[in-house]
Specification:
The protein is of the alpha/beta class. It contains 17 helices and 9 strands. Belongs to the HIBADH-related family. NP60 subfamily.
Length: about 375
Amino acid sequence: MAIAFIKTNYCYISSLILNQSINTSSTMAMCSSFCPQIPNHLRSRPISLSPTKPLFSVSVKAFSSQTSNATAKADEIPARVGFLGLGIMGSPMAQNLIKAGCDVTVWNRTKRKCDPLISLGAKYKSSPEEVAASCDVTFAMLADPESAVDVACGKQGAANGMSPGKGYVDISTVDGVTSKLISGHIKAAGALFLEAPVSGSKKPAEDGQLIFLTAGDKTLFEMSGPLLDIMGKSKFFLGDVGNGAAMKLVVNMIMGSMMASFSEGLLLSEKVGLDPSVLVEVVAQGAISAPMFSMKGPSMVQSIYPTAFPLKHQQKDLRLALGLAETVSQPTPIAAAANELYKVAKSHGLSDQDFSAVIEALKIKLQPSAKE
């Protein structure tokens, strides 16, 4: 029973080992197999875990996508974890860390969003700087590049609380230029930086099924690996800072374009007398089947759009992806057309609804001109 408890509460047991002396040699032998002691600061050498539960499994694909011989070698996880930004994504991610027994300190511009997490045991600090100063690794999940820069590099930004041995993991979706700017400020303080935007929306965040697209300091990737495993199902290390941001923008560009095309199909089927609900079923059983269509389709048919990924964020990501394509002169005509559709949807007050509400932009009839 004791071993099972350790397997499922890694962060919690690690904290106990820090704060209590264990006198029984047999107990020490047992714990050393699963819960090596954690220092009060991060070390620069990588970490390794022997996963005993899917929650902490190492993603072979994530490592092998870069180096076939890469292995996790470290024996510790960060003792104190900070989390900045508690929106649709950040709140469930931080909650999963707390439920896993991690020592979490939170901050959000709107303090009341911190209250549910505080009630679960999180600590609270009044600025990103204070969070970073009090934690070993700090995660940031912000809505856009401007917010990400302000929280990291502003007057009371996290960079001011950074010092050698600490780490900053930015899981916001931003462009490469923004990510490199934040990285510069963090590294100037002597700390480590990792960009780790996620693929997934509200439900995967709640279920700990996100996909992390990371780049930056490999040491921090390995140190924070067990924490990423709590919040996600897989992680990829993609090399230099900027590559993670680029991968996320490409993924969301594809997703936004797919949703726009799916919306056209639903409306066309209805216009020609078919049942769009049946179309959803047909698509789900064919070669173009995608979880997104099966999950979003039924509510779209009913013109209901419960927000899992706000439309304004999808449009922002399309805009950033088009900017990325421009830097390498890559034509992206389909994504460009989809972006215009999302802009129309935003102009009709659909910004805060789910991105599947883009279908409403196709229902809008053009007003006749004054000459007609």
